[in-house]
Amino acid sequence: MDENPDQIKAPPKRLVTILIAIIAVGGIFFAGYSAGSNSRPPAQAINTITNTESDMPEKVDFAPFWKTWNILNEKFVSYKKATTTDQEKVWGAIEGLTSSFKDPYTVFMPPETAKAFENEISGSFEGVGMELGIKDNMLTVVAPLKNTPAEKAGIKSGDKILKINDMVTTGMATDQAVKLIRGKQGTIVKLTIGRESAKAPIEITLTRSVIDIPTIDTEIKSGNDTASSTANATGLQKNGVFVIRLYSFSAPSPGLFRDALRKFVESGSTKLILDLRNNPGGYLEAAVDMASWFLPAGKIVVQEDFGVNNGGLNYYRSKGYNIFNDNLKFIILVNEGSASASEILSGALQEYGIAKLVGNTTFGKGSVQELINITPDTSLKVTVARWLTPNGKSISETGITPDYTVKITDKDLIAKKDSQMEKAVQLLQGQ
């Protein structure tokens, strides 16, 4: 455990998930528009525009766009006093272009949203504390975050958001949902939830709060108590089970995970549980770094498929910290809220036989986004590749299936019984 701390670096702006709670928007508009609205010709005079900028399509018919622009300017009457600026119209056009690619993870972020996204990456924002995605063409909760209004109100992974306040979400883009759900601390938002186990929709009222994104915590479960006892520093037992709960793959995660592993080694235990339930992911580089503690140098952690026209396969390999021997007994807990980087880490360690997985099948978010600055205050998050496990399995298609499927029932929730954790402890202790 005397590794060089410089090995753990803050990752670049390369994301493998929509990352932490309610941030997703859509679209980038054609850059040739930068000539500006003031110089736009009358709509009827335009048939085809010839672009002079390099790397632009030579001929694009903008007549429908300008005609719509002019009609809106001339005829639209707002019931609100606020007006839409020309620049806001451009951002809206960019969002529309991006949404035409029909990928919920390829999104354009205008200034306000881009700033909020940066704040969330840094670990704090105002909202209700859950991550949203699109699944089965419906707005879906990927995971509620720990100790947030969403978690405290009983929001679950897999819940479908049917209404936000009184607005139906059918066909709603995630960026619109983001704007409706986010808000200042102390304000209220009402969600109508569809849940598989519920006979009727559920209405939940949430009070927005400042959300501090948690990263990691640890505990040792006593060898004589498989419930939820936490051993103190003087009560560490070699036959106990060491638990690491990881809530996100943020920039600080690799260093915090290294420190948690050091505590595990110092405890003398050989039984480890990594709890990735409701962890929606984050930085790819964090997942690769964590896998490196268990794999020899050069082993493939994940394959990045850019498609045959964009470079084919790229491989992310273990850095080879590999400090554990065959005595390690390792289980990873996953559920439908484990997404992206969680799926990369758990899928790799499962396929190499390092860890067994317990819980439910994961979310299935297996694409990589690159964050690109369009202007100094706007960004584009664009899907550039798909993730495959070391054996070539597509994460997006089916998610990661656990070795032991254990569902937490409503009865378990009422009794505050964690049957997945109990099963993991039992397996490690040979029961």
Based on the model shown, name its key terms:
431 residues; disordered N terminus; 2-enoyl-CoA Hydratase, Chain A, domain 1; Pdz3 Domain; globular; single chain; 2 domains; six-stranded antiparallel beta sheet; six-stranded mixed beta sheet; alpha+beta
Could you characterize what this model shows?
The chain is an alpha+beta fold. It has helices at residues 63-75, 86-99, 111-122, 149-152, 174-181, 253-267, 284-291, 341-351, 395-398, 410-414, 419-428; strands at residues 14-15, 49-50, 59-60, 107-109, 124-127, 130-135, 138-144, 160-164, 167-168, 188-194, 202-207, 209-212, 216-221, 241-246, 271-275, 300-305, 313-317, 329-334, 356-359, 367-375, 378-388, 404-405. It folds into 2 domains: 5-10 and 215-368 and 381-428, 2-enoyl-CoA Hydratase, Chain A, domain 1; 21-38 and 58-212, Roll (Pdz3 Domain). The protein is built from 11 helices and 22 strands. The strands form 6 sheets. Strands 1, 4, 16, 17, 20 and 21 form a 6-stranded antiparallel β-sheet that branches. A hairpin with a 7-residue loop joins strand 10 and strand 11 (202-207). Residues 1-13, 15-52 and 225-236 have low confidence and may be disordered.
